[in-house]
Amino acid sequence: MTRRVLRVAFFMRVHEDTPQPAPSQPSPASGVTPDVQAIARIDAVKTVLRVLLQTTGLRLAVVARVTAQEWRCCAVLDEMSFGLKPGDTLAISTTFCNTVRTSATPLLVNHASQEPRFAGHPAPRLYGVESYIAVPLYRRDGAFFGVMCALDSNPAALPQDKLEVFRHLGDLIGHQLENQDALDRSAAQLFDEKEAALLREQLIGIVSHDLRNPLNAILMSAATLVRRTDLDERARRAVRRIVDSADRAQRLIRDLLDFTQARMGQVLPVDRQPMDLHELTCQVVEEVQAVAPERVLEVRTKGHGQGTWDADRIAQVLHNLLANAMQYSPSGARIQVSSEAHDGELVLRVHNDGPPIPQEVLPTLFEPMKRGTTNGAERRSVGLGLFIVDQIARAHGGSVEVASTQAEGTTFSVHLPRRG
Predict the structure, then answer these.
(1) Sign of the CA dihedral 70, 75, 80, 82?
(2) What does the radius of gyration of the chain's CA atoms come to, in whole angstroms?
(3) What is the tens place of the pLDDT at every residue in 7-25?
(4) pLDDT tens-digit series, residues 267-312
(5) Minimal CA–CA distance to 323: which of 313, 335, 311?
(6) 3-state DSSP call for residue 197?
(7) Could you tell me which of 12, 2, 152, 147 has the C-alpha nearest to residue 88?
(8) Positive or negative: CA dihedral 90, 92, 77, 31
(9) From start to end of 296-393, where are the E strands?
């Protein structure tokens, strides 16, 4: 059987007495095994891998099928150009995942080449892996499937409580895998109503409780640290990065929960209260400006800003649109935000002068997992932001539209009736 050889971007030079396998290119389907296909059919995998990178700060997350004979990549989110693709294989003895398999326990390594247990392990020497965190994956019947891990070529300082986050998300993947196996056996295309409701409850429970609680603990601990007066500037910047990363992960979790509700046919809940939309707009822009002081953000209000809306939901809309504008525009470009009163409604607009959205993308732009461009997609969000914006606008009885041209730039307009 032909085996694909990984050409790792940061591959470290191997000792001259180490035999080198000859590079080869397999046929396109050679690495597509049933295990790879099963994981690929689980929609939640990419989102879970993104959450892992957000919460750990590591740059490569993988779901791998691991046996006594083989390590095979089933899904990967790569932000450091490792070169790993679904279907690729590694010699099992060269991986930390083999340690997870044989011990049947989670594993956390912060600086492999400096830790006595792993200093002589092949992974740091062959692949440059210094930090690694993983949990074993099991099917619901208890059968071992493989490993879910995140790793990096840089050392890390991950606390042990990160393993708890991995464990809960690993349980989710294991449950999803079992459901996928059941679908394959029965040749069914959709879950029946009872199965869908059970999956929804499992997903919402795991994400909203088991993942949010550790994130809240991280935020509270980091907020306590940042108030200390004995930290030097370098340590203070590091703590602020922790706060920013945890905050982004929390927003991602909220988008994921909203996505789950919408996919189940439910209208997003809104709690309408009297408020001033102009004031909220200015507040959100100030919050974003504080996090991204290097960006040029301008805000303008016009007319009477009073109405009844869900302030938290509207803030979520603005955060998502501003994140999208910063993501798809040059770092020095202005981003303009306006809140304008019209007859019976207010219109929120977020404008940036980045490259236009391709015309062929516009019809599906507000669908989940869609983006304005595929350039650098692996380094971007999971693609739920604009979908959530559209759902929140609909829940308020409003709508969202986009205009994007080379000459005028890109403008998202959210129409919000003053009263539902």
Answers:
(1) positive
(2) 23
(3) 333 333 333 333 433 333 3
(4) 778 889 999 999 999 999 998 888 788 899 999 999 999 999 999 8
(5) 335
(6) helix
(7) 2
(8) positive
(9) 296-302, 306-309, 334-342, 345-352
